[in-house]
Amino acid sequence: MRKYLIILLLAISVFLIFVSRSLAQKKDMIWLNADLPPYVILNNPYKGQGSIDYMQKLVKDSLIEYKHISMVANSKRVFHELKRRDMIAYASALKTKEREYNVIFSIPYILGFPNAILIQKTKLKYFKTYINNGVFLLDKAIKEKDYKLGISVGRVYGGVIDKILSKYKGNKNIKVYYDNISRKHINELLVGNIDYVIGYPSEMTYFLKKFKKKESVIAIPIKGMPPYLLGYFAFSKTKWGEKIVKKTNIILKKHRNTKVFHDSNEYWLDERSKKLYRKYIKEFYKNK
Q1: By residue range, what is the domain housing residue 12?
Q2: Residue 286's closest CA among 96, 111, 104, 92?
Q3: Residue 225 lies in a domain
Q4: What is the rounded CA–CA span in Å between residue 259 and residue 286?
Q5: How far apart are the first and last CA of the chain?
Q6: Could you tell me if residue 159 is inside a domain?
Q7: With 50 as the cut, is the pLDDT of residue 265 above it?
Q8: pLDDT at 8
Q9: What is the pTM of this model?
Q10: What is the dihedral of CA 212, 217, 221, 222, to 10 degrees?
Q11: Are the CB atoms for 161 and 80 separated by under 8 Å?
C-alpha cells in the first residue's frame, strides 16, 4: 500500500512540475480596455458584465496558450500601443481607414447605436436653434461661444462626428477630457461644467441609473450619422496578429448572433431602441 502511495505522490509531483513549467512558458498577451459602460465595465457593481466584456472573455478563454494581462488605457493610448508593440489586443474598436494601416481588425461582432448629443432636459430650450427635424446640427452648435461641448481625447465617435471634431480641433468651446471615463462626462454635464456631451445613449442610461437621475438627460441623434455602428476586435498588425485574428473570428462567428449576447446589449435599451436593435440585427445577419 505504501509503495502505491509513493508512486501516486511521485506522479502528482511530476504533473505539478509539468503544469508550472507550462504556465511559466506562456507568453503575455496584453488586453487594453477603455472604460465604456455598459459595454465595458471596469468598476463595481457591474464589473465585467458588459456585452463586450462577455465576448472578450470568450476569446480569452479560447487562447489558453497565453497569459492574459488586462490594462486600462484611453483610446489614444490604445491605438498608439497597437501600432508600436506586438501581442496587444483591444475588444472595443471602431474601424477607420486610418486605423487599418496600423492594426488588424476582426470581423464585426457587435452592433450599437451611434453616438448622440446628450443634453440636460432643463437646457434643451437653449439648443432649439441647433435641432432640426429631431436631429442635432453639431457643426452649427460648435460655433456657438456660449455653450461648451465635452469629448474624450483620442476617442473615435464614428461617421460625420469625427470629421466635424477634426474641423474644429482646438476650438475653445470644446473641452477635452484626457481619460475615457464616461461617468465623469455625465457628472460634468449634470453639474453644469459642460453644456452637452457626445456619447452613446446606452452610456447615458447606465450612468443616470447609477446617479438616480433617470429622466434628467436626453439623447438627440446627430445629423449625418448612420442608424448603427459596428464594433470589432483589434490586434497588432504583425504575423502574431494575423494568427490571433483567425482564431478570434471563429469564436465571434459562433457567439455574435446568439440570444445571450443580444440580451446583454438590449438590457440597457429602452423599448423603442430594442425594437430598432432587433430590426437592424435581422438586416445585418440576413445574408451571413
Answers
A1: 2-111+230-284
A2: 111
A3: no
A4: 16
A5: 61
A6: yes
A7: yes
A8: 47
A9: 0.75
A10: -120
A11: no
Amino acid identity for residue 236 in this structure: S
Domain count, the chain: 2
CATH number at residue 15: 3.40.190.10
DSSP string, 230-262: EEEEEEESSHHHHHHHHHHHHHHHHHTTSHHHH
User: pLDDT tens digit string along 48-80?
Assistant: 889 999 999 999 999 999 999 999 998 889 999
DSSP E strand boundaries for 51-138: 66-72, 88-93, 103-105, 110-112, 116-120, 131-132, 135-136
| Coil, helix or strand at residue 194 | coil
CB 88 within 8 Å of CB 82: yes
pLDDT digits (tens, 9 = 90+) for 191-218: 888 999 998 888 777 777 766 666 678 8
Number of residues written out for the chain = 288
- Give the residue among 75, 114, 66 at the shortest CA–CA distance from 234: 75
What are the grid coordinates assigned to 100, written together?
Answer: 487599418
Neighbours of 228 (CB within 10 A): 17
Backbone Cα Rg of the chain? 22
